[in-house]
TrEMBL record:
It comes from Serendipita vermifera MAFF 305830. This is PH domain-containing protein. Residues 209-308 form the PH domain. Gene3D superfamilies: Pleckstrin-homology domain (PH domain)/Phosphotyrosine-binding domain (PTB). InterPro entries: Kinesin-like, PH-like_dom_sf, PH_domain, PH_KIFIA_KIFIB. SMART domains: PH.
Length: 311
């Protein structure tokens, strides 16, 4: 139901009605319902208005859509904490980063880098202190002792001075894992309540620019070796899938963030299709078949531009 007069009458030619559509989704892991919102431009036509002819649609700058879709990014964060025990750290060591295959076997280090740096700084400081004392001793040649104190007492005081520590005596211990002693156990009688997250949604804008588009065969059922011919259009950071080349019926979207593309001769015998390649994402893998060798290399270069070709 609505209370807008603009939606109760026919829209004038060349005009559109801008609607803001909002809806919410209840999630068990969130504090509040997740709210989605987007704007949509529509035109109200008369009841007897027919669909435009195909010839007129070819020269029209607008498309008549029976449905529309949108992509939202959902960000889940813990609520603001008031105690140090509620803090948590996100482990990104296993997250795929584009181009990391060019680094070979190298992997980033953890807390040990900080510990090695502290040891290096301490060693260089001691070495600099020794060199400074050498300069002082070289500038004043030794002289015969003429004092009244016994030399053994002077030697004992000197050794005690060398062994004395100045400044902060504590040591900051860095650990990759939290200390078990710092964790305060919950009372046994109270049930463990899972942490509720705060959701933030953002509409991902869709770019109309694409450097590649074409038909590919998509493996839809590996057990039955079922393939489907679909129209694919890469628009970073997503790969849009349509039923036909007119791009009116969208059937799927694949995220191209951190993807890897693999292609080998062994896949031809395994799949029984020529020119196959596999697209690996952070959550799934997709198998395609290109129409020819030229299209195979073109799609691989567009989907994974920094991929190192196989020798």
């Amino acid at each position: 139901m609505h209370d807008s007069s603009l939606l109760n009458r026919v829209t004038a030619s060349g005009q559109r009605i801008l609607l803001q559509i909002s809806w919410s989704v209840d999630m068990d892991t969130c504090l509040d319902p997740v709210v989605f919102s987007m704007e949509m431009a529509v035109a109200i036509q008369a009841r007897d208005a027919g669909a435009p002819s195909r010839f007129a649609s070819m020269f029209s700058s607008t498309k008549r859509l029976a449905m529309t879709s949108a992509i939202f990014s959902l960000k889940l964060t813990p609520p603001l904490t008031r105690s140090a025990n509620d803090l948590w750290r996100l482990d990104t060591s296993e997250k795929c980063v584009r181009g990391e295959e060019a680094l070979g076997p190298w992997r980033p280090r953890g807390i040990s880098v900080v510990e090695d740096y502290e040891r290096l700084v301490a060693t260089e400081k001691r070495s600099a202190d020794v060199q400074a004392i050498k300069v002082i001793l070289a500038s004043s040649p030794p002289q015969p002792y003429s004092g009244g104190r016994p030399q053994e007492d002077i030697l004992r005081d000197t050794l005690a001075l060398w062994q004395k520590k100045f400044g902060h005596r504590g040591q900051i211990v860095l650990s990759q894992e939290p200390d078990e002693g710092d964790v305060i156990p919950a009372p046994a009688l109270e049930p463990l309540v899972p942490l509720k997250l705060v959701a933030q949604t953002k509409l991902v804008p869709r770019s109309d620019m694409s450097t590649k588009a074409g038909y590919l065969l998509l493996l839809t059922h590996a057990g039955e070796n079922t393939w489907q011919k679909l129209w694919f259009v890469p628009r970073r950071p997503h790969l849009y899938i349509y039923s036909h080349s007119n791009e009116l019926e969208e059937v799927g979207v694949i995220s191209l963030t951190g993807v890897k593309v693999e292609s080998s001769v062994d896949m031809v015998a395994l799949l029984g299709k020529p020119h196959p390649f596999t697209l690996f994402t952070s959550s799934n893998s997709h198998v395609f078949s290109a129409p020819n060798e030229k299209e195979l290399h073109a799609w691989i270069s567009k989907l994974d531009p920094i991929r190192i070709p196989n020798p």
